[in-house]
Specification:
- The strands form three sheets. A five-stranded mixed sheet has the order 3-5-7-10-11, with no helix packed on it. Strands 4-6-8-9 form a four-stranded mixed sheet, with no helix packed on it. A two-stranded antiparallel sheet has the order 1-2.
- The chain contains no helices and eleven strands.
- The two termini are 34 Å apart.
- The protein is mostly beta strands.
- Helix content is 0%, strand content 46%.
- The chain has one domain (31-129).
Length: 130
């Protein structure tokens, strides 16, 4: 792949950090692509894949507390991958419980009649609310 934009001849290069502990090590970095997913909510539950470094999960307007189960693909994620969960509560503040498998990793609070976005970060094994 050529890091030069052939339309305007701009060059883009990756700059590695200078971390002594990384000397003589090969560090792999995932290309920072993003994806928006809009899972179907059924019985106040939804499932969403997480296969990119940035994922936006749009739940729409919630009329009840909802459980969102994330399905991370660890082979496609580096530590620090982010998930943004976005929803609007109806006239009542609606919470979103986030799970990875059977484990609850976060309970995200909503605000009545308001659009909310909350973030989670991949720690290499699961997601942490940030």
């Amino acid at each position: 792949m050529n890091p030069i934009n052939t339309e305007n001849n701009a060059s883009y290069n990756f700059v590695a950090p200078s971390i002594p502990e990384d000397a003589d090590k090969k560090t792999e970095v995932m290309f920072p692509t993003a994806e928006v997913v809009s899972p179907t909510i059924s019985s106040n539950k939804a499932d969403a894949p997480v296969r990119r470094q940035k994922t936006i999960v749009k739940l729409g307007t919630l009329s009840a507390a909802t459980t969102l189960t994330l399905a991370p693909e660890p082979a496609n994620l580096n530590v620090g991958a982010m998930v943004a969960v976005n929803w609007t509560s109806d006239g009542t503040a609606r919470a979103v419980t986030v799970k990875v498998g059977a484990d609850t990793v976060a309970t995200l609070s909503g605000t009545a009649s308001t659009k909310v976005t909350k973030q989670l970060m991949w720690d290499g094994e699961s997601f942490l609310a940030v």
